[in-house]
Amino acid sequence: MNELIPIMVIIPMTCALLLSLFSNQNKLIKGLAFFVAICIPIIPLLSNYGLHYFGGHAPLISNLTGVLYHPAVTYSFQSLQKLFIFLLGILVFLVVFIYINSYKKASGPYLFLIFMGTAAITALMLSDDIFHMFIFFEIAALVQVGIIAASSIEDRYETALKYMIMGSIGGPMLLLGIGILLAITGSVNITDIVYAINHNLVSMNSPVFLLACGLIFFGWLYTSGLPPFHTIKSAVYSKAEPHAAALLQAFTVITLVSILIAMFRIFSNLPIFEALLVGFALLAMILGISMALTQNDFRRMIGFLAVGELGFIVLGIGLNTEFALTAGLFQAINEMIVTALLFIGFGVVADLIKTSDIRKTGGLIAYYPKLAIMILIGGFSMAGVPPLNGFQSKLMLIQASLSSGFPEISIIAILVSIATFVVFVKVFYAMFLKPKPNDLVIPNKKVPRSTIFAMAILLIMCIILGLFPSIITGYISGFVGGLL
Amino acid sequence: MRFYDKLIGIFKSFKDSTSNTGVSANLTAELTLISTLLMACLLLRHINILLSAVILLGFAVVLLTNMPLIPKFKSEQDDSLNKMLFYVIITLGFIITIMYWGGNFV
Amino acid sequence: MLDLQLASLFTVGFLIVIGLFSAIFIDNVIKKLMGIAFIEEGVNLFIVTLGYKEGGIVPIYLPGMDANWFSSTAAYPLPYGLVLTSIVIGASTLAVMLALTMVLYKKYGTLSASKMLASREESELNE
User: Fold this and answer.
1) If DSSP codes are grouped into helix, strand and coil, which group holds residue C70?
2) Helices (H) and strands (E) in chain A — how many of each?
3) Which of A17, A136, A424, C97 could bond A120 through an S-S bridge, CB–CB 3.0 to 4.6 Å?
4) pLDDT tens, position by position, A372-409
5) Contact call for residues A287 and B77 (beta carbons, < 8 A)
6) Are A284 and A307 in contact (CB under 8 A)?
7) Which residues contact A55 (CB under 8 A, 6 or more apart)?
8) Nearest by CB: A161 against C47, C82, C117
9) Does A29 touch chain C if contact means CB atoms closer than 8 Å?
10) CB contact set of B31 (below 8 Å; sequence gap of 6+)
């Protein structure tokens, strides 16, 4: 059923518009949001692999040159897209579930933002058209700003404005790079661009092509929050509501992966491209972890860790072997799950005790034991403790870097994992084990059941993927085989 | 004794040195930063071994003599828009320079 | 006399450089946003310029036209399609940024970026 491919984008988008329209009727929008949130993960499971041409404009063969080209916006749905859209669907379901259970009156515009973001990110993952990707990324960026501005945390407007100002330098540079690619290949379809490059219709050594690569690379750094955008990205995470932060980091991971795959298909023949990828990956890991260690705000700490973990994904793809690519994409999936778990867990604690400063917390294990255990296991998974999922993907990455002749990279990866573990020891001690400070008031409120349920599901996913990684890696290696 | 005094000076220079955890986390960050950056310098051996040796030694001297690195790093990566914009523009310039003039030589 | 396309490309460079300059160096947030609008418009102009053809015609295929003549003289239509979407995106981004500036102006009573958008810890230290 290939007709389901555009439906994956259309359903959340229509739902978003309807939610905004009926925002006065509380029960209706809660029901609609819940129903659509269940549908979103099911659609990719039912759909077949294939291509969808918008407007039915199938590819044409040019009479003059015999070259196949794509006149329509093309969506390509393969095993990787299936995996990521399914996982995004699960996360959206959990986030919507938490939201409609924890607020008596659901806000239509807020749910609009969540579903619009989902639609944009799904389109970004599916699209085979680089300009289309840019447009949906900009929509996703606006949604992110909206989600931050809708939270109730201090300084949210400042962070939102800073993010948009930085984005207004990154976004146009990305567009300029796409424009240059359009100028030298005459197309914005990635398959057409790759064809032109592989058949020497475009000179790989021309400075203009290299300039396009540099500009798109810079724009990609902005879209994925790698250095130098890591400070603003972690601030964005720490200013959103806990469930929304979990969704925002999933958006970032999928944006990173989809644009990175597009760039990899176009530029992977340039040796300097891989060098840049590895360089920025190492920079993200080092800066992310060293900043996370020094933070006193635990939400900000997880934000920096989330940015640092992105480095592992990029590292896998920068190493450019089949095994490394599989490891990197597997790490992307693990990071989505684990970071969502941690954002929800830490965010709930911050909401309950009204502070996120670890110097003012302590002794919480007596009040929230279930939450403490789940946060601890999530932290172990992110640090790469066996038998959890983070261990499997990090082990694969270390093996991949060893076998491609870069033992230094594996040593750095191990050091960063150890430092991640230190972060969790520090924050777990400061929040849960340290004696309770006298001025800390713990409200007589229980942790919401919906939050515990969502965290439990994410935790079960962590453990299952840790024990049986082949469930996921089979899908990924099928896709990677077609990519190389 | 000189090195010991220096170490004490480092502890005192951390702004949030009121607690045990704060100091040990900052110290971990310091050590991780130095060791990972030096390891990353080793990667240059794929271009030229001599270059990597020179840069590694130079970098090690610079990092070790400026020892409390973390306070400087932290103040450079805070939330001020001006600092963030500065690094963004530096990176843009760096990437474009590397790609436009150096893209063919790697 | 400059070629129209070349002149247009020079304008693109001029707009982007001026925009970057004011986005980086001017402290007033509204002026920063004006600079950002300059960058966006510069990039849009670049994409429009790509479709230009010396002596070209509007790319609408009318009955009675010779297909070969049409394909050799019509301007390239794809950039115009793309630039419309890009303008809309730019306008909405600018609107959101101005709205945020309004909120922040009410809070701080100033438009200076170095006061409004400074680091929180820094301002605490100065007090």
Assistant:
1) helix
2) 18, 4
3) A136
4) 999 999 999 998 888 888 899 999 999 999 998 888 89
5) yes
6) yes
7) A72
8) C117
9) no
10) none
Quick check: A161 and C101 CB within 8 A? Answer: yes
Q: Are A188 and A178 in contact (CB under 8 A)?
A: yes
Q: CATH for C4-126, among 3.40.50.40, 3.90.1150.10, 1.10.287.3510, 1.10.10.10?
A: 1.10.287.3510
Asked whether residue B106 is assigned to any structural domain, the reply reads no
pLDDT above 50 for C125: no
Chains touching chain A at 3 or more Cβ pairs under 8 angstroms?
B, C
- Looking at the complex, report in whole angstroms how far the Cα of residue A138 sits from the nearest Cα belonging to chain C: 7
φ, ψ of residue A63 in degrees (nearest 5): -65, -35
Q: Is residue A150 part of a domain?
A: yes
Residue in chain C nearest A157 by alpha carbon:
C100
Size of interface A-C (CB pairs under 8 A): 81
- Nearest chain B CA: its distance from C119 CA (Å): 4
What's the burial of C95, exposed, middle or buried (CB within 10 Å: 0-12/13-18/19+)? exposed
Question: Does residue B53 lie in a domain region?
Answer: yes
What is the span of the domain harbouring residue B18? 2-74
Give the ipTM of the model, two decimals please.
Answer: 0.92
Cα separation, A128 vs A52, whole angstroms: 10
Q: Where along chain C do its domains lie?
A: 4-126
Which of B73, B79, B87 has the most C C-beta neighbours within 10 Å, making it the best mutation to test the interface with C?
Answer: B79
Confidence at B18, pLDDT banded by 50, 70, 90: low
Closest-CA distance of chain B to residue A351, Å: 23
Q: Is residue A157 part of a domain?
A: yes
